[in-house]
Amino acid sequence: MSSWNLWHGCTKVSPGCAHCYVYRRDGEVGRDSTVLYKTAEFDLPVKKKRNGEYKLTREDGTVYTCFTSDFFHPDADEWRIDAWKMIKERDDLDFFMVTKRPERFTVSLPDDWGEGYPNVHVCCTCENQEMADKRLPVFLKLPIAKKSVIHEPMLEKIDISKYLEEYPGQIVSVTCGGESGPDARVCDFDWILSTREQCMKHNVAFSFKQTGACFRKNGKIYKIERKLQHSQAKRANIDFDPAEKEG
After folding, report:
1. How far is Cα 201 from Cα 171, in angstroms, rounded to an integer?
2. Long-range contacts made by residues 28-32, C-beta under 8 angstroms, separation at least 24?
3. Long-range contacts for 34-38 (Cβ within 8 Å, ≥24 apart)?
4. What is the pTM of this model?
5. Which of 1, 72, 75, 178 could form a disulfide with 36 if both were Cys (CB 3.0 to 4.6 A apart)?
């Protein structure tokens, strides 16, 4: 696994953004936007060693892209042109990005994009039902080779059954997770299980990523330390892999 945060900063667009870690780490708590700027990592995928070999290699794993911003933020429209060129050049690497802005996907899109670069995986965030119903009808019509959905921070029970049914095979996986940080809102285990049931019914991979800091199970609220949020989710042992089911 490797990361490529080619620009930094963002603008809040929905309830899931309220306690975003980007603002916490920048000391901008309470603000609705931060200044977007290119980072020193901007050209990381095409940087080379003295011997001419790329610094990033296939062995470094999936390149988690733009996780301290949104790849489709409007302030990065010009920068994204060069970003796509680098992604195309490094077709030996797999790039994974998460967005709350699927409606902006086609801005600055390369002319040769076609049905999507095979090495690009885009994940759409849907933290509540309103955002699922707003974003998924747009997202699922986009020409993207690999699509997934994440409910994080999951703020309520979310029903995406109709999208899984209407667009079979479009969503390769769904992930759920609670919210971290000192002001974390509650995440209920029943919401997680509901999404899992929807995925199992439609044979879509499911994973429970993290409990969040304020986790409710069987009506009781647990305050969970940051270092334990991922491991506690893993201990629930509720991930679903269709390939294992078929095996």
Report:
1. 13
2. none
3. 34/9, 34/10, 35/9, 36/7, 36/8, 36/9, 36/10, 36/69, 36/73, 36/75, 36/76, 37/7, 37/8, 37/9, 38/6, 38/7, 38/79
4. 0.96
5. 75
